Amino acid sequence: MSEFVKIGDLNPSSRGVNLIAKVVSKTEPRVVGSQYDNAEHKLSTALIADESGAISLVLWDDDVERVREGETIKITNAYVKVFKGRMQLNLGRYGKVEASDVELEEVNTENNLSEKVVSSPGLSGSGPRERFQRRRAFGRRSGF
C-alpha cells in the first residue's frame, strides 16, 4: 500500500490517495438520479481535515452511513476531482473509507482546499469563453 499523505499536499492530479482525517461536518443525505445506471443513489458531502488542511469528501450510498461527524476515518485509494472549479476527494470504485483507531485532536480547517478555485489538470479553462477562444485560435475543426 502506498504511504499516507496530508490533505494540504493534495492537488487536482492526486490519485491513489491514502490519508487519516477527522470528519468536521457532514451534509444531510439526499437522493439523486444517476445518468450512468438510471438508478437513485444516496449522496452526502463531508468536510474532513487533518493538521495540514481540509477538503470535501463525496460520499455515495453505503459510504454515507460509514462516516460520522467527529470521528476519525482512514481513506484508501481515493482521488481528487475538480468539480465546478473546486477540488473534492472521491472514493470511486476502488476507494475505501473506514473508522480509524488513530485520534486527531487538532485539525486545520483554515486551509480548506475545496474553497479555492482551481482548474482541472491539463486545462487552462473549460468555460464557454475559453472554448470559444480555442476555436478561434485553432479553427472549428480542431476538436476543441
Write down the CATH class. Mainly Beta
State the low-pLDDT regions, or none. 123-144
Q: C-alpha Rg, in Å?
A: 17 Å
- The CATH homologous superfamily corresponds to Nucleic acid-binding proteins
CATH topology: OB fold (Dihydrolipoamide Acetyltransferase, E2P)
Number of H- or I-type helical stretches? 2
The percentage helix is: 10-25%
Strand order of the largest sheet: 1-3-4-6-5
State mean pLDDT (0 to 100 scale). Answer: 86
**CATH level-two architecture:** Beta Barrel
Please give the number of β-strands.
7
Task: Please identify the oligomeric state.
Answer: single chain
CA-based shape = globular
The assigned structural class equals mainly beta
Element pattern in H and E: EEEEHEEEH
| Number of structural domains | 1
Strand content: 35-45%
Please give the alpha-carbon distance between the first and last residues: 38 Å
How would a crystallographer describe the biggest sheet? 5 strands, mixed, barrel
